[in-house]
Design goal:
Bound molecules: pyridoxal-5'-phosphate
Strand content: 5-15%
Oligomer: single chain
Radius of gyration: 23 Å
């Protein structure tokens, strides 16, 4: 396949877009990118409403307005803790998944460095971190930074199925391993990792166990005791909650240093005035997500499997990425050989369909997905990868329309020789 030239790419896309327009039969947009973000649940919006104008106080203030906000904040914290089977004091609010991941990784690393400071460490092995090749960049980038600055990092393979083998974790463990960070469910291919199993084998090791559970809240059990994790990242934007809010569960006793320094909020672990409306929204969103996870899983799984079955049968050279069973019930990630995923996205957009090439964070670069490459697939698979992530409002009627539209789009794209199959 010739190397893609950006200008040529865009001119082709523009040409194709002019070729023919058609609106969805349902007369609205079809949103299939819930792994990137979700709209706000009406019930969440309602729960947040009083805290914008009416109950606006600073939770650190001593008077009535402050006490009201404090109460809302602590209620939310208690309710979130309940959903995760833990204690309120083990929850630190942050501004989202990225910040929670950074706090987990740098927080542990700083604590290690602090302990080492002043000690003669010559001849002692560098502290060691274990993670996987297909983590979200919010985990990978901090690990890569630490890998260049005084830490050793092991990036575990995930195999063609996109699932970490606990035995590989065990084999990689060293006496100097200080942190293991493995995501609960992958954001691109949706594969679910054996967190509880890994938690069990880390029980007798001093390494801190972190999991990024941003994609899991709507479908999986978040009981931190059962999972055996010490740190867990969650955010609002993937569970029909507000954006720009997240939390880090930090088990009592885990040595963690703050990344930001300032006031005394969040037990000094995350200074700054708390985002009370968003925190209230996050608590409501998680409660709803966990209450509805079983019924919603059954519903979207049926749509998912229907989609996968038809798309792989009816469009030639289309392959599912990641294990077919051990994946989030709402995730479909396919490679369409001979086309650029971006072209498919832009074309489908013209037909009223929103989906993505995997990670929204890399959509502005033409770098192929590190997740698809980590599955050991050739680059053509990464270039042609498209992710459809289902959500609460999606219907079978929509899926049928998407499949028919996709067929036409792929046919058209493949007929353009520049992309040659
Ligand atoms: C979305 C996401 C993040 C980043 O969360 P933000 O709230 O956007 O900072 C981190 N990890 C995973 C797995 C995600 O899906």
């Amino acid at each position: 396949m010739p190397k893609l030239n950006f200008a040529v790419f865009w001119s082709i896309v523009t040409l194709m877009k002019k070729a023919g327009k058609q609106t969805p039969p349902v007369g609205k947009r079809i949103y299939l990118d819930h792994a990137a973000t979700t709209y706000l649940d009406e019930r969440v919006k309602e729960a947040m409403e009083p805290y914008w104008i009416e109950k606006f106080g600073n939770p650190s203030a001593l008077y009535k307005e402050g006490r009201e906000a404090r109460q809302a904040l602590e209620n939310a914290r208690g309710n979130l803790a309940k959903e995760m089977g833990t204690r309120a004091e083990e929850i630190i609010f942050t501004n989202g998944g990225t910040e929670s991941d950074n706090l987990a990784i740098f927080g542990v690393a700083y604590a290690v460095l602090k302990e080492k400071a002043g000690k003669n460490s010559s001849g002692v092995s560098l502290p060691h971190i274990i993670t996987t090749k297909f983590e979200h960049h919010a985990v990978l980038s901090p690990c890569e930074f630490l890998g260049k600055n005084g830490f050793n990092v092991t990036y575990l393979e995930v195999g063609e199925e996109g699932i970490v083998n606990p035995k590989d974790v065990e084999k990689s463990l060293r006496p100097e391993t200080v942190l293991v960070s493995i995501m609960y469910a992958n954001n691109e291919v949706g594969t679910i990792q054996p967190i509880a199993e890994i938690g069990k084998l880390l029980k007798n090791h001093k390494a801190v166990f972190h999991t990024d559970a941003c994609q899991a809240a709507g479908y999986l059990d978040l009981d931190v005791e059962k999972l055996g994790v010490d740190l867990m990242t969650l955010n609002g934007s993937k569970m029909y909650g507000p954006k720009g809010i997240g939390l880090l569960y930090a088990k009592r006793g885990v040595k963690l240093e703050p990344m930001l320094r300032g006031g005394q909020q969040e037990r000094r672990m995350r200074p700054g005035t708390e985002n009370v409306p968003a925190i209230v929204g996050l608590a409501e969103a998680l409660k709803i997500a966990q209450t509805e996870k079983e019924s919603e899983s059954v519903r979207v799984k049926e749509l998912r499997d229907y989609f996968i079955k038809r798309v792989t049968a009816e469009i030639p050279k289309v392959f599912l990425n990641g294990d077919a069973e051990k994946r989030l019930p709402n995730n479909i990630n396919i490679s369409v050989l001979g086309v650029e995923g971006e072209a498919v996205i832009l074309y489908l957009d013209e037909y009223g369909i929103a989906c993505s090439t995997g990670s929204a964070c890399t959509s502005e670069s033409f770098e192929p997905s590190h997740v698809i490459l980590s599955l050991g697939k050739p680059r053509a698979y990464a270039h042609g990868s498209v992710r459809f992530s289902l959500g609460k409002r999606n219907t079978k009627e929509e899926i049928d329309y998407v499949l028919e539209t996709l067929k036409g789009v792929v046919e058209k794209l493949r007929s353009i020789s520049a992309f040659g199959v």
